TrEMBL record:
Gene Ontology molecular function: any one: ATP binding
Keywords of the record: ATP-binding, Cell membrane, Membrane, Nucleotide-binding, Transport
Any Pfam family the entry gives: oligo_HPY
Similarity section: Belongs to the ABC transporter superfamily.
Family matches, as SUPFAM superfamilies: P-loop containing nucleoside triphosphate hydrolases
GO cellular component, one term: plasma membrane
Name under which the protein is recorded: Peptide/nickel transport system ATP-binding protein/glutathione transport system ATP-binding protein
NCBIfam families hit by this protein: PRK10419.1 (NF007739), PRK11308.1 (NF008453)
Topological relation to the membrane, as annotated: Peripheral membrane protein
Residues annotated as domain ABC transporter: 7-263, 302-552
Any GO BP annotation: peptide transport
Locations listed in the record: Cell inner membrane
């Protein structure tokens, strides 16, 4: 490795002007990045990690920020060193995309919806490399092959909305790499992706870095991703760098209390081996003596048999019904009182549709759903409304599920007001009690959703779901958007509530380490069907279906000595769940391995 770094950040300070005066986003941060090295910048939301990367690109000014101090030294291709903090925007245009590439967190905002993928990929090449149209198109095709996009010729003619999330993110990576930049900044590039796609993209970035000698600044809050990718790690907390070291030093011998707390909050796959029941995480600095495992009851609360949900696809001149999306296909399971059943799988496997069908937020095509002996499918609208007292949902995005114009106290009280379960002082006392339960201060009662952090908003959503004393809660990716330590706190809260109130959870997630921590039983979904279901220990420690094995193999482990190599990660692309009208797939047939462990034997396309 060369001694001379490509980029050096020295004493960076960034401020933002607000109505209440200036706010410091980054206080005093220094680190450097050498050629062919991956430096991971970790920390939670608001720690200043994205602000540091946007300062290097000089994009922070467009977000209302000002570089108030420090130097950003960058080694250019021609060998001259410049201070990016002093460079004017005209010069920056030549450097951006050409010598420094950036992969943004949200691919849909980084791509232009009105241009084809091919047009966007060739734009940078024609601008910076002065290629002809034909040369740029040939280079774009090669880039698409490098990032392993299937049918690249066809994809170049498509628009961003026609691609899946994983493919869009690959296009963004291809765009960032188009001009072979000396420095690549990746800002949470895999947060929104499934486990299998994340594993492939991390391996792809690692391979491209080795082949091109590019320096990589990788920003993330996922410690398992850090263990997979990093050479060196910079830990940030509230705008300051609190620790820096090699990946082995940080994981094996962390020095700062914040780094220790961050690592303690990471659920690790395989940690629960040998335990039968879920138990809360032992967080740093939180006394958890006598943590009881959650056994749950023996009687079945929710019985689902042959659940099938399809969505019509309309097309042609008269918008006729031409095909169906087979979202949920012949799904059956039982959920016992006070226990958690997790449904796992990739995006589009039908897990969210299954959860919504059970609550009849989406009307199922056929099947039987019994909650406490009551047939949910047969209920009339007024009866269904009464039945909703027993079943509630926690959505993935609390900001979208909370009303921005209502105070938090009113939002938590609203279900009680709707159903007339509590009134007056009794209702006020119950709202205060619910806030205490989800560990939010009572001063928040008068606040509004925009005044809270993501984790606090999710706690309000949990308090609202508990307002009516439900028996069943469907948690749809309830912790996937949260920071590691906040996620650990929310999971512990959900498990404490389960132990105290006897709640049953249908927990929908694609995070295998979280699922291992909270579940009694696990169902793995693929193309609308459950391909394997059983007690957590059986499914995690003895997976039988090839898809379950592939899913387990893809999960990054928070241990730098257990990195995944690219040849381990060859996943089959998922076939389309859309079939023409009249297509009737066969029933799901299972082999019983004993102890409630079932594996799909009928052809599931894997």
């Amino acid at each position: 490795m060369l001694d001379h770094p490509i980029a050096r950040i020295e004493n960076l300070r960034v401020t933002f002007e607000t109505k209440d005066g200036p706010v410091v986003g980054v206080k005093d941060v220094s680190f450097d990045i050498a050629p062919g090295e991956t430096v991971c910048v970790v920390g939670e939301s608001g720690s200043g990690k994205s602000v540091s990367s946007l300062s290097l690109m000089r994009l922070v000014e467009y977000g209302g920020g000002t570089i108030a101090g420090g130097r950003l030294l960058f080694d250019r291709r021609d060998g001259q060193e410049i201070d990016l903090a002093q460079t004017d925007q005209k010069h920056m245009r030549k450097i951006r995309g050409n010598e420094i590439g950036m992969i943004f967190q949200e691919p849909m905002t980084a791509l232009n919806p009105v241009f084809t993928v091919g047009r966007q990929l060739t734009e940078g090449l024609r601008l910076h490399k002065e290629m002809t149209k034909a040369e740029a198109e040939a280079a774009a095709l090669e880039l698409m092959q490098q990032v392993r996009i299937p049918e690249p010729e066809r994809r170049l003619k498509q628009y961003p909305h026609e691609l899946s999330g994983g493919m869009r993110q690959r296009v963004v990576i291809a765009m960032a790499l188009a001009c072979r930049p000396r420095l690549l900044i990746a800002d949470e590039p895999t947060t929104a992706l499934d486990v299998t796609i994340q594993a492939e993209i991390l391996a792809l970035m690692d391979r491209l870095k080795r082949e091109t000698g590019t320096a990589v600044m990788f920003i993330t809050h996922d410690m398992a991703v850090v263990a997979q990718m990093a050479d060196r790690v910079v830990v940030m907390f509230r705008g300051n760098k609190v620790e820096e070291g090699t990946v082995e030093e940080i994981f094996e011998n962390p020095q700062h209390d914040y780094t220790k707390a961050l690592l303690a909050a990471v659920p690790k796959l395989g940690e629960m081996r040998g335990t039968q029941y879920p138990e809360p995480m032992r967080l740093l600095g939180v006394a958890r003596d006598g943590v009881e495992p959650i056994k749950g009851g023996d009687d079945v609360l929710l019985h689902v048999k042959g659940l099938t949900t399809r969505f019509p696809v309309k097309g042609g001149f008269f918008r006729r019904h031409i095909a169906n999306v087979h979202a949920v296909e012949d799904v059956s399971f039982d959920l016992k009182r006070g226990q958690t059943l997790s449904l796992v799988g990739e995006s589009g496997c039908g897990k969210s549709s299954a959860g919504r069908s059970i609550l009849r937020l989406v009307e199922p095509l056929s099947g039987r759903i019994e909650l406490g002996g009551k047939d949910i499918v047969a209920l009339s609208p007024p009866q269904l409304r009464r039945a909703r007292l027993d079943m509630q949902m926690i959505f993935q995005d609390p900001f979208a599920s909370l009303n921005p114009q209502m105070s938090l106290a009113d939002q938590v009280a609203e279900p009680m007001r709707n159903f007339g379960t509590h009134t007056g002082a009794e209702m006020r006392a119950r709202v205060e009690m619910l806030f205490d339960r989800v560990e939010l201060p009572r001063s928040f009662l008068r606040r509004y959703p925009h005044e809270l952090s993501g984790g606090q908003r999710q706690r309000v959503a949990i308090a609202r779901a508990l307002a009516l004393n439900p028996k069943l809660i469907v948690a749809d990716e309830a912790v996937s958007a949260l920071d590691v330590s906040v996620q650990a706190q929310v999971l512990n809260l959900m498990m404490e509530l389960q132990a105290d109130l006897g709640l049953s959870y249908l927990f929908i997630s694609h995070d295998m380490a979280v699922v291992e921590r909270v579940s009694h039983n696990v169902g793995v979904m693929y193309l609308g069907r459950i391909v394997e279901i059983g007690p957590r220990a059986a499914v995690f420690e003895n997976p039988q279906h090839p898809y379950t094995k592939a899913l387990m193999k893809a999960v990054p482990v928070a241990d730098p000595h257990r990195r995944k190599s690219e040849h381990e990660l060859n996943f089959k692309p998922i076939p389309s769940p859309i079939h023409p009208v009249g297509h009737e797939p066969g029933p799901s047939v299972y082999a019983d391995l004993g102890g409630g462990h079932l594996v799909l034997t009928s052809d599931s396309g894997y």
